[in-house]
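Ticket reopened. Same input as before:
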Amino acid sequence: MPDLKKKNVDIIAVASAAKVSISTVSRSYNHPELVKPATRKKIDAAVRKLGYIRNRAAQTIHGIRSGTIGLVVPTIDHTIFAEVIQAFSDAVGAEGFTILVASHGYDLEKEYAVLRKFMEHRVDGVALIGLDHSEETYQLIESQGIPAISIWNYDGSSRISCIGADNYLAGQKAATHLLNLGHREIGLVFPPTSDNDRARGRLVSALSVLSDANIEVPPRWRIETPYSLSEAKEAVSKLLDEGKCPTALLCGNDVLALGAIYAAKRSGLDVPVNISVIGIGDFKGSSEMEPNLTTIRLPARRIGRIAGEEISRSIIEAQTEVVRINCTIELIERETCQPVTGMVRSALPSK
Amino acid sequence: MPDLKKKNVDIIAVASAAKVSISTVSRSYNHPELVKPATRKKIDAAVRKLGYIRNRAAQTIHGIRSGTIGLVVPTIDHTIFAEVIQAFSDAVGAEGFTILVASHGYDLEKEYAVLRKFMEHRVDGVALIGLDHSEETYQLIESQGIPAISIWNYDGSSRISCIGADNYLAGQKAATHLLNLGHREIGLVFPPTSDNDRARGRLVSALSVLSDANIEVPPRWRIETPYSLSEAKEAVSKLLDEGKCPTALLCGNDVLALGAIYAAKRSGLDVPVNISVIGIGDFKGSSEMEPNLTTIRLPARRIGRIAGEEISRSIIEAQTEVVRINCTIELIERETCQPVTGMVRSALPSK
DNA sequence: AATAGTTTTGCAAACGTTTTCATAAAATTA
DNA sequence: TAATTTTATGAAAACGTTTGCAAAACTATT
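Engineering reply: fixed in the latest deploy. New output:
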């Protein structure tokens, strides 16, 4: 039973309890092969008796790694980021690192502030979402000279290492799929795209595919809504219930797509018979929902895991060169999209 | 522009650049009122010029707080925990703390290991989910004498501070509601209950309400499934497609409930016309899904926020007495449950 | 102009470790 | 048994801060 004498037990206490010098105690942790087994046993006993726990702060000021990695995300409670965090955490945890987590709520100033705080804690590396960051943020990272990695976006000319998918391609694939199914009347449901390169890439490319096909999306069919199930549902409901409605909805991510599907159901529309919906992401649950969501798969867990492995590696090997990894994405055809030819348009609301 | 001369800029570098002693630099951070404004200005200039960032590790070994709080959850990528983490993070962030996060995957040994690692980092406090922890874990917390708080469960005799809801009551409310609607043939869908006091409390109380009403749940109707949408859907599908099926499903949480609803839909059953489903939690999205989920609301964000506020407070005030907060829960009647009297049972599969 | 009081600053010890270097003890060899 | 090599340990400096104490620089008072 640990000695509860409030005195904070330090390495000195252990040393005297074990009747050895502090150097020996330290060594028995850091270079156990250099200390005699018998001595090690004495030390272990003392450690156990006193309930000693090493102080990483004290180690850290010797230039020894802190063993922490900072992770900043826009928000923690979106499926997609939660998945990334989990995978990232598992990957770096396997290498002995602990993560510091913070969210910035899509505010790049806040992101900088958070990152600075991480630096005060002398994290061994940092991970961010996307490549949209303030100049200050980039300079901070560069001036500290620690490994940094951007998760979620691939960009061949990124300023820091990145691992992710090509969001531009994602939007393209989604739009192309709808086109292939014969859709010409297409609505767009996207989150705000300022300060969000993921959404922006998808939107821009979708729009460009559409305009290449000579399709113009009327403003009323271009919905901008916060990244929220309820708000997306609300916004799409409004679109569906007023005036002419599109034959298909291209959504910036699966959450918005789900909101759209709920809105359709609420308006008495069947997906995909009356309207098709495609998402981007293939979030956890998208394959289970009824009807199963047709979407562009962005391998969140894989990205998170590789990001974790990659940054651990660059910390351990102290190599700071930029690496860029592009994860392939694919169209997952499920049940929420169908060719226009098979559609029943009569169900459209007449109110 | 920061001086990039790899030399790690420390307080000494700043001092000499500003032509003052290191004590003065230190003071200008910690007790600015003690240093002359003109001097402060010189120091600020030097700091900016060199890109100096304080080293919390060095401060920490003076007994100064590390400014970190450790948070251990079973898993990050379940809506419910993600919500809690977000709220908790925001609350402690407002007080200047940064969180260390780790997950243990429902393995209490791992939880202990993670907690130990947190202690090495000298976190100022720790937060855990639920009250099921190993004896070792409790002793570790007690021996370190730092504030600890358990999130999600209320228990009047908890060993550490706790904030949460009464899961026992939650199960009771859910079961009672089904009973009130006239259901007598009730299926139970729960996650494994060992090492999970939340689920256990709910299951035990539901069962007890049922048996008090002289209702016995046949083994085939007692489904144990991992906390996963797809596995719940799978398991419930099997139940629904083989043999007699219950008029209502009581699910241990909203994710399992959603899985059950999907399974019903897949089996051609309408919820609630052919079968009622009740969840527990009222997760984000439960109110939006179609049909809206009837459930017992556990205020996740509120719990997370209060937990964060509470632990910040006890760290700052250095007061370590146990506090226990019980958040009220309520039945949210929505669309997935209806009285047996109105049900259509003919739709049941005959295969 | 000398004194007393205040404000501002610097010196040095302390915090809990790791690590280099030197020394003591043990094992090996001659 | 003495000399040599190897292995195990300890003393002390170093890491980047904070802070108690004392000295220095001002201000105000006579």
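Residues 20-24, 27, 34-36, 39, 58, 60-64 of chain A lie near DNA strand D (CB under 10 Å from a C1'). Chain A is about 40% helix and 15% strand. Please confirm and we'll close it.
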